[in-house]
Amino acid sequence: MPAIAEPYRIKMVEPIRMTSRDERETAIRAAGYNTFLLRSDDVYIDLLTDSGTSAMSDRQWSALMLGDEAYAGARSFDHLVESVQESYGFPYVCPTHQGRGAEHLISKILIAPGQHVPGNMYFTTTRVHQELAGGTFHDVIIDEAHDPGSQHPFKGNVDLDKFQALIDQVGADNIAYINVAVTVNMAGGQPVSMANIRAVREICDRHGIIMWSDATRLAENAWFIKEREDGYAHRRVAEIAKEMLSHFDGITMSGKKDCLVNIGGFLAMRDKRVLTKARELVVVYEGMPTYGGLAGRDLDAMAVGLREALDDDYLTHRIGQVRYLGERLREAGVPIVEPIGGHAVFIDAAAFLDHLSQDELPAQTLAAEIFLDSGVRTMERGIVSAGRDTAGNNRHPKLELVRLTIPRRVYTNSHMDVVAESVIRVFERRKDIRGLQFVYEPPTLRFFTSRFEPLPAPIEETATKEVVEPEFATAAP
Ligand code: PLI
Prior knowledge:
The chain is of the alpha/beta class. Helix content is about 40%, strand content about 10%.
């Protein structure tokens, strides 16, 4: 495989700071061992998320300067609508401040309390909005998605039997809609095949079920179809993406990923009645229907970014960089989710720290340890992210992962080398790592703001310590 360089030149740089081990210890303690609560200035390489962290192009910065900041009827809105119509094929668009704003509105529009919402694995904010609207989420992803080692090329696929079984069980009328995410974030950035999308559409048509997509990473999904699905190798990603979206009634979009902007989102749909309802709600929760909580300049930057994200060369480099990091880790024996996904490398924290139980929070612990080692910030995607069920019990997801998420167009492969070396160092001393416990837990989306502390050392270890370091006892106040 020939080397692939960044398909862009760097025009502006942002300095980042290296820190000492002492500084990192102070920082992670102050953050309650939660990487979400670290200050960005204390982070060396930030792989917390690919959301809103992209570098914009010169064309996007130019578009920003042309933003129309009129309160109503801004031409920036027209630019976004034109871009969505041309690239995604939906006639109607309702902007929102970001993806979860769109999820909030569509959940309120489509879900009647007591209804069911199948989806190909949950996403945190999506499920919360479905539940707040009175819906019950059902995971209908294929079993392979829950197996970090499975090499299935489309681990994001909907399991058609599970979907049909749910219809048989609750009745099509009690299904608000099906939400198909492309790609599936929580499964490791895994794609859905075109054949699967078509098959889901057929079931929906047979039963009169509405079919929406969380299209947040649709460009990356389309690239995987080009790479892996028969008949698509010679098509442009932009065409594949449009074909994918042609099967859906509508999409929720977090522009912060595959529209290459730092803030923004929208709903796009075919049904004018849904647009009318979205417009009724958007004025209450977000802003006027032509800006939806965004500045005109944000709409313009998004209109340009969503086209750029569908470029074949950009995507080949983007997904190639994620793969570069993943392959370095795999070669060193670090357990990762395979195949390597589109936006991130996911470490299998349960296998990495196999001496910890899931209740000792292996992924949260590993994210804190990687930060301590090198200042690289990653994210927990396991028991902490899964939260509690409606009865208040901890959910125990099958996947207990740490996500190394690569921002778009931001880092080079030299950064990826630093990250790989750090993870490998932590892997080599993994047996010495102890777990964490909660000291503060908010009622919803707990991963954002929970605080933790290290679990106490086992009795025998404490006893040994007291013998070796007796001054501990005397130094105490
Ligand atoms: O962060 P928002 O509100 O713009 O988008 C919410 C959202 C919806 N769907 C999916 C698949 C997401 O990944 C997503 C946000 N993801 C974040 C913030 C992430 O770090 O992955």
